[in-house]
User: What shape does this take?
Amino acid sequence: MLVLAISSVGLIFVAVALMVILALTLGIAIATVSDKFKVQEDPRAGEVVKMMPGANCGGCGYPGCAGLVDAFVNGKVTKVKTCKVINQENAQKVVDYLNSTKGPDGKTLKVTL
Ligand code: SF4
Assistant: This one.
């Protein structure tokens, strides 16, 4: 009876140890894959979105203001007035910001009104 009780405790210990090893292995694997495939976001996009009208009207040909801002920071669109709604003051702020702030690659953009 005593031998049976000890072996049951031993089995529980082995099961818990295996679960801990499995959890650590999977945790390390997830952290490694997550780090390898992470998408580096351009921090300028978040700042420029705040300067946009926020109407998300689609008049620029993008589904929303964030789409046009992504096109700015990726260099696909260089004219800020592609936004049909933005006023002159905010458009100038966007131009000044993007032409003077370096992105993750260490370079500034060349955008115009
Ligand atoms: S036209 Fe301007 S306000 Fe409309 S979705 Fe494009 S960026 Fe936003």
In short: Helices lie at 2-36, 43-51, 65-73, 88-100. The chain has a mean pLDDT of 93.
